[in-house]
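Structure tokens please, single chain.
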Amino acid sequence: MVDSLFGSGVAFHKEKAVWMEFWIMWRRIAGGLLEERHSDMWRFLKPQLERRLAPRQPQYQANKQPKPKGIQPEGLDEMVRLAAALEHLDPAEKIILGDWIAPRVTSPGPWAWALGRIGARVPLYGSVHKTVDPDHASKWLNLLLDAHTQNIEGALFAVIQIARLTGDRARDVDDALRNRAVDAVRRAQAPPSWQSLLLEIVNMEIADQARALGDTLPAGLAA
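Here you go.
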């Protein structure tokens, strides 16, 4: 199933723009798919992303991944966004992906958004039992706070997703780290709804949900 969808099923597979639209389509419908389909997609994406992302990390230098056989997909940024949106994955797999992404959050691209989505305390549609443990998420949160000080686009919203208050000790980061996030939001004069997510147990506003999903509202519409 996954090979036909993600490989030979893509017409004009040498065109990067086609691949980008392909990944965007799957990200947009991912929330309506079963856990098994998320696992299928991850099985295809994992070796592709490992080859592209993991070799930059020292522990992978001695064992670079060979190029997978078959059609080679394009559109790395959208591949990363799709992988980050697979909320039904086991936390261990999310941690693998997040750790590949983490060293890149101070660079422009999908990295900050993706890390915030992977480490989010409140999934958009997945089970809370599939969230990454708060200790590991806290490591990413520190990196994102640093990225925000470097004016990396999307870093502050990613901070909010990981520092968001849930009232569940099994998911929440510690208060001191959340307070750093609150200070960052206040200094940035971010929307009041962002600060509320850090200080209260509230639902995310529609515009913020769209941002978390990786999309924006159409021009002329307001949340």
